[in-house]
Structures are given as structure tokens and as C-alpha cells.
Write a structure and sequence with these properties.
This protein is mainly alpha-helical. The chain has seven helices and no strands. The protein has helices at about 10-40, 55-95, 105-110, 115-130, 140-155, 160-165, 170-215. It is elongated, with a radius of gyration of 21 Å.
Length: about 220
């Protein structure tokens, strides 16, 4: 069975492109938030609606935020598909080392508590499957840093968009925008680390598959 192991690079590319697109749009939304933050610090000057710079930047900010949400869903879907694809490889290399059933690739993202540990378990199992049999260890500092960045990005400043909608003064809006900018920075870091983990695991699994094929 080992000689049929093939690690599909295409799925890694799809997931990486989705994550990169999410990061770029998130960065653009952060820049729009920063521009709006600066405009709110200036005295309000009456003028035509169509020429109002605050209205213009707010339109860009809202549109980019909408695109960001959509791309986040696409990136999560592509990452889950990538996990399922690499799980096929790991099943051949070290089937008994895969601790969770495939259904958890979906439920692990949405069930409370489980979403804090199950996705990391899948990645840990893939990492271990990519190592020589006598050296298999689950976990690595890179994986820990990646997962912590994902958890922090997913939980920090989650109320900022609601606070921005409820803001009635410029100061309140600026405080909410400041939190949104921090949140966007965390999201970009998490997406970048996710891409690094994707390619590290893909290359390690390629090496393990080549060794297994050579042994056969």
C-alpha cells in the first residue's frame, strides 16, 4: 500500500491561496480602519455627501469587512479539505496513530471546547505520521505557536465590530476601530503561520511517503 502514497500539492496550493487572500483583504480592511480612525480625530466639516472622505472610507471599510468574512469561510473550508486530504496520506503511513474519526474534521470546528483542541490534534497526528517510526512525536513548537495564534486571533476583540455599530461619539468609534486594527493584525499573523504549517507538513509527508515507497 505504501508504494501508492501520493501527497497532492494542489490542495496545499488551494488552501494557501485562500489563506493569503484572506490575509491580504484583512490587511486592506485594517488600513481602511486606520484611515477612518484618523479622519474621526479631525474636526467634522459639513459638505456634500458624495465628497465626504469619511463616507467614502467607511464604504471601503464595510465592503472589505464583508469580503473578509467571506474569505474567512472559504479559507476554513479549504483548510478542512486539506486536513482530510493529508489524513488520507497519514492513514497509509501510520493509520493507528490517527486518533480522531473523519467526522471530527467538521464537528471539531463548531463544537464548544472541542474546537479548542481537536483541530490541533489532527495536525499533531499528521506531524507524527511524517516522522520515522522510531522517532514519532506528536507536537512541535511551530505547531504550538501556530495554534496559539489561531486561538488568540479567534477570541481577542470579538466585540469590536458590535461596539463600532453602537458607537454614538467619535471617541467610541475610534476605540472600537483601534481594537479592530489589533484584531486584523492578529488574523494576518495567524494566516501567515497557517501557510507555513501547511507547507512544512506537506513537505514532511512527501519525504515520509518517498521513504515508504523506497522501502517497499
Amino acid at each position: 500500500m505504501a508504494e501508492t502514497v501520493r501527497v497532492p500539492r494542489g490542495q496545499t496550493w488551494f488552501a494557501s491561496v485562500a489563506l493569503a487572500a484572506f490575509a491580504l483583504v484583512t490587511l486592506a480592511a485594517g488600513l481602511a480602519a486606520w484611515h477612518k480612525y484618523r479622519l474621526l480625530a479631525e474636526p467634522t466639516t459639513p459638505g456634500p455627501y458624495v465628497d465626504n472622505p469619511l463616507v467614502e472610507v467607511d464604504t471601503y471599510f464595510r465592503n472589505l469587512t464583508g469580503w473578509r468574512t467571506g474569505l474567512l469561510l472559504v479559507a476554513l473550508l479549504q483548510f478542512s479539505i486539506w486536513l482530510a486530504t493529508m489524513r488520507d496520506v497519514a492513514d497509509v503511513l501510520w493509520r493507528q496513530g490517527q486518533r480522531r474519526r473523519r467526522a471530527w474534521l467538521i464537528f471539531g470546528w463548531v463544537i464548544p471546547i472541542a474546537q479548542l483542541i481537536v483541530p490541533k490534534m489532527f495536525v499533531n497526528d499528521l506531524w507524527a505520521a511524517s516522522q520515522p517510526e522510531m522517532q514519532r512525536r506528536r507536537g512541535h513548537p511551530l505547531l504550538t505557536a501556530w495554534w496559539l495564534s489561531v486561538l488568540v486571533a479567534g477570541t481577542a476583540f470579538t466585540d469590536a465590530p458590535k461596539d463600532l455599530k453602537k458607537a454614538v461619539t467619535a471617541d467610541q468609534a475610534r476605540d472600537a476601530l483601534q481594537q479592530i486594527m489589533f484584531s486584523d493584525g492578529l488574523d494576518v499573523c495567524a494566516a501567515a503561520l497557517s501557510i507555513v504549517v501547511l507547507w512544512q507538513l506537506m513537505r514532511r509527508l512527501e519525504r515520509a511517503a518517498a521513504i515508504a515507497s523506497a522501502e517497499v
